[in-house]
Amino acid sequence: MFKISEIANQELIEKFIAPGPYYTSYPTLGAWSANVQEHEYVEALSKWSQRENDKQVALYIHFPYCPQQCYFCICNVTITKDRQKINTFLQYMLTEIDMLFSQLGKNGDMPSFQAIHFGGGTPSYLTEEEIISLVEKLNSWIDVRQLKEFSIEFDPRSATPEKFRLAHELGFNRLSMGIQDFKLEVQQAVNRVHSFEMIDSLLTSEVRSYFNSINFDLLYGLPLQTRDSFHETIELIKKLSPDRITLLKYAHVPNINKHMKVLDNYPTLNDEEKAWMFFEAMDNFKSNGWNHIGIDHFAKPTDSLTKAMKNRTMKREFIGFSSHGCDTLFGIGPSSTLKTSYAYYQNTCNLETYANSISKGRFPIQKSYRMSSDDLVRREIIESILCEDRVGLKKVEAKYQIDFNSYFSEEIQGLQHFVQDEMVEFTSGDIQITPLGKIFNRHICKEFDRFLRNKHYEIHGTGNKNHL
Asked: Hey, which residues does 78 pair with through a beta bridge?
């Protein structure tokens, strides 16, 4: 088996740590416009319903509240212990669900929802009654038990056997848990303490039987982490044996997230050492039964994500790689995002603005981006690199009526250093990403990013969801 940690040298390390987007969208959020009106979004929904022949779609629901601040977090969250505030806000989200589904059903042809992901924030912070009310609202429009995937994020600190059982009874079939690290001093520094024993006791055989897939989120590069300490965490993760693992790089951006400033007080490894942490963890997982799906995702051979990768039905979206195969993603809640074949829209991140818009019966849109023909072909190439480890040149030429070599002459030239490093191969009909190149696939994608070339957005160097 190919192991990056056995061949990594200074040149490869420098290539790996070079900053760049993680391409949960193309173009990334930094290129989107804030000059958008709500009626444009309504019109876009109407046109989408009329245009799209294949109306298989997914939905992301963002719950923004947490009981306490994790200092590593870059997600759109608000800290509160006010249960009345939480319940009131949930009512706005339920109203937005009605607004969206009502708009989608105006032509009498409701899309076929394949997957729903409930994230945050901390969805498991909701009471059992609140979770029930959310699922009942969804069930008033669609049958959630017919979904391929119905997933929910759980913070182990707010997880209970009863909530796991309830999630199963309501139809959730995939679970994601934020583990991050098991070293106590690291957990204390980032304000997220939960022991290996706690997680082990929660994930009983009965609880595991409730879900088709269990994912763990891990963070490398946190303050106080060392390569040895992170290796200890990886060994414990192997004992817990999740179906999927998302191995994200911590991005320290206190200029954007003020709560991160407290972490300036702790030592952090340099970028080269962080790269070694990732390489060693990657090889460890691959040697013990997890496939490298792409970038920072790993999955067991039995998991639907591995099957989607092999079947070339895997998709790249705002929460990472997905197996549901949908090109369209709708969003509910603050900061959530809509992706269609020709446009992106994002809800406001501001909770007050969100609530005010919903109370007036208006969709709370704050950003948008309309795809040009050039954007479309570049997005397809980037998604193919990330999801298929190849680009079918003849397919792209036929679909977009271009001569690939002429249209992308600069990009082909830019790829040559990847060819020399045996990461990319040009065949008669394909650009093929090699096993070594798969580890650098997002770096390869940068060659096709015209916004990055023209410096139209800033890079923060994070692998966390919903960011560059």
From this structure: 65
